[in-house]
Amino acid sequence: xxxxxxxxxxxxxxxxxxxxxxxxxxxMTADPAMLxxxxxxxxxxxxxxxxxxxxxxxxxxxxxxxxxxxxxxxLAVTGDRLLLFAAALGYAPEVLCSPADVHGxxxxxxxxxxxxSMGATGLRRIHAILALTRMQIKALTHAVGLSGEHxxxxxxxDDLDTPQDAAEQLRERWSLSRGPISNLVAVIEQAGAMVVVxxxxxxxxxxxxxxxxxxxxxxxxxxxxxPDRFRFSLAHELGHVIMHTDxxxxxxxxxxxxxxxxxxxxxxxxxxxxxxxGVDLTRLLHLKGRWGVSMAALAxxxxxxxxxxxxxxxxxxxxxxxxxxxxxxxxxxxxETPQALSSVVKQLQEHxxxxxxxxxxLAGLTPDEFDKIYRSASSLPESPLPSARL
Length: 390
Fold this sequence. Notes:
Blueprint: H1 12-17, H2 32-41, H3 46-56, H4 64-71, H5 79-89, H6 93-97, E1 110-114, H7 120-143, H8 163-173, H9 184-190, E2 194-198, E3 205-210, E4 218-222, H10 227-243, H11 250-265, H12 268-275, H13 281-291, H14 295-304, H15 310-322, H16 340-351, H17 356-363, H18 367-376
Parallel strand pairs: 2-4
Antiparallel strand pairs: 1-3, 3-4
């Protein structure tokens, strides 16, 4: 496999700079678990890493067997070999040397809104990206002295207290007014969580979240997902972190998160009034612009609230399928842009005087990747939800 276009723009001489002040490279040794994590985040095999390292230093002749032994902890990765790993994988040497348990990598319940077709390999890559994103955010927020305080709480559910009850309680605790939530990302960030939107390299997963002990929740959303799924996906993940503290039946927890999201975004007392006058495609498209969710989600909400019958719901879905709306709905919903991390980056740059390269070094990334994830994506202007017409 030719990785000439995939190799990060980080060369060995730059890796020496990324060693950091006061850190002696000869005293640094890669953590085997972090080598695996970094590789999986790039969606590479061990053979891919070996090829990438060999391309950077032709005389090295790195084999897949060497990568396997390094990841298994059967040999120490130090010095020039550590720099070679760092250059190939596009992470700073400090990242590869960080003990996984220090950063809580793999600790905590991870939730994701995904399609059933997504396999274990793809999930491992997403979990690796999530873990490394957590490390990057911790480094950046620590640099500006953020305390990590938040207003999140667990709301248990059972046979009597439903996901809808949990959503209603959370809206009340967060003092949200009735009707549509104009900016869900802002609400979640104001509660103390971190929201990151980036290309996750798949169309089979919309969002992933984790609330690890002692930290604010982290929500990672896929920029490649359709915008009209964005808010529901985020509310779905919010339901997970609020309700689910232990692993459970996947389908059951996914259904509970959907019920939470529907009530949180479309409270029954408000949406019922707007649905009772009739539900057709014209009406659904108008409500899509007002509530910021897909037409399909609105139709499903009408069904669960008994505003329409199963027969009516099926007819609406058939009509949407015939028009191609199940693949791409009409009516735009603007994707909300996270602001919390961009504010951190702005403070580091304007108040502390750090360059992009210095901020990238804090996060353990190449300048190009740091700019793409934490500066370019966060600087997009935010637009209000447009009115929709059929």
